C-alpha cells in the first residue's frame, strides 16, 4: 500500500502550466528526489502533496499514515531557544522527555546550543533546529522542501544517512534538492513532466 498517491495532478501558475496529469505513488522504503529547474514547480507540487495548497490545482492526493512536512522557510521562533522550539514542535506528536529533545539537538550538532536564544544562531544552525524534528519523528512519510539549504557538507552527509535509515526501516522520504544525492541507497527521481522513474 502506498504512503502517498498522486492522481492526475495539474497546476497552472501565472499563465504557465507547471505540470499536467502527473500521477505517481510513493511506497514504504522509497527515497524520492523531485527534480527540476528553478521555477519548475517543485515547491508548488510539494505543498499540494503535503495538503497545504487546497485549491487552484486539479487532481487528487491521498496519503495513508502520518506525515512530517518541513518547508522551505524555517519555522523556528527567534525568541525561543532550540530546546523550546523543538519541544513546541513535537508536543503534539508524542510525550518526549527533555533527554529526547537534547539527544535530537545533539544529533544535528547543536550540543551546547540548547539554551541559546535562536536569534543568536547562524542560518545553518537555525535550519538544524528544524531538522532535529526528523530525529524524533514517528511519521512514516517525510516530505521535505530543500532540506540541505544552509547545511554544511558534513550535515548533508548525516541527513542522507538518516534518510536511508528511515527508508530501510519502512518509511519513505520525498524531497526537493538541487544537489545530487550521494547516499548508499537507491534514489528514485521524480520528474514533473514524466513522474517517477525507478
Ligand atoms: N503565489 C504564487 N502566485 C503566482 N505564481 C507563483 C506563486 N508561487 C509560485 N509561483 C510561480 O510558480 C512557479 C513555480 O514556483 P515553485 O516555487 O513551485 O518552483 P520551484 O521548482 O520550487 O523553484 P526553485 O527551484 O527556485 O525553488 C514559478 O514560476 C513561480 O513564479
Automatic annotation (TrEMBL):
One biological process term from GO is: cytochrome complex assembly
GO MF, one example: transmembrane transporter activity
- Keywords in alphabetical order: ATP-binding, Cytochrome c-type biogenesis, Membrane, Nucleotide-binding, Translocase, Transport
Q: Does the keyword Ion transport apply?
A: no
Return the Pfam families for the record: ABC_tran (PF00005)
What InterPro entries does the entry give? AAA+_ATPase, ABC_transporter-like_ATP-bd, ABC_transptr_haem_export_CcmA, P-loop_NTPase
Q: Where is the ABC transporter domain?
A: 4-196
Q: In its keyword annotation, does this UniProt entry include Cell inner membrane?
A: no
The protein's matches in PANTHER family, at most eight in alphabetical order, are given as: ABC TRANSPORTER I FAMILY MEMBER 1
- Kindly provide the name given to this protein in its UniProt entry: Cytochrome c biogenesis heme-transporting ATPase CcmA
Q: Which organism is it from?
A: Seongchinamella unica
Which taxonomic lineage is given here? Bacteria, Pseudomonadati, Pseudomonadota, Gammaproteobacteria, Cellvibrionales
Amino acid at each position: 500500500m502506498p504512503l502517498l498517491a498522486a492522481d492526475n495532478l495539474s497546476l497552472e501558475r501565472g499563465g504557465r502550466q507547471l505540470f499536467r496529469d502527473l500521477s505517481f505513488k510513493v511506497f514504504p522504503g522509497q527515497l524520492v528526489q523531485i527534480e527540476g529547474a528553478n521555477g519548475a514547480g517543485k515547491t508548488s507540487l510539494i505543498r499540494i502533496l503535503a495538503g497545504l495548497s487546497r485549491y487552484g490545482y486539479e487532481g487528487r492526493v491521498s496519503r495513508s499514515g502520518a506525515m512530517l512536512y518541513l518547508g522551505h522557510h524555517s519555522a523556528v521562533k527567534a525568541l525561543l531557544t532550540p530546546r523550546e522550539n523543538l519541544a513546541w514542535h513535537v508536543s503534539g506528536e508524542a510525550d518526549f522527555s527533555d533527554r529526547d529533545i537534547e539527544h535530537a539537538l545533539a544529533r544535528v550538532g547543536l550540543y551546547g546550543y540548547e539554551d541559546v536564544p535562536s536569534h543568536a544562531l547562524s542560518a545553518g544552525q537555525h535550519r538544524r533546529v528544524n531538522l532535529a524534528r526528523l530525529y524524533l519523528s514517528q511519521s512514516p512519510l517525510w516530505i521535505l522542501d530543500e532540506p540541505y539549504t544552509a547545511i554544511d557538507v558534513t550535515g548533508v552527509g548525516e541527513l542522507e544517512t538518516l534518510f536511508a535509515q528511515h527508508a530501510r526501516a519502512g518509511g519513505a522520504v520525498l524531497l526537493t534538492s538541487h544537489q545530487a544525492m550521494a547516499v548508499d541507497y537507491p534514489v528514485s527521481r521524480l520528474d514533473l513532466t514524466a513522474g517517477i522513474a525507478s
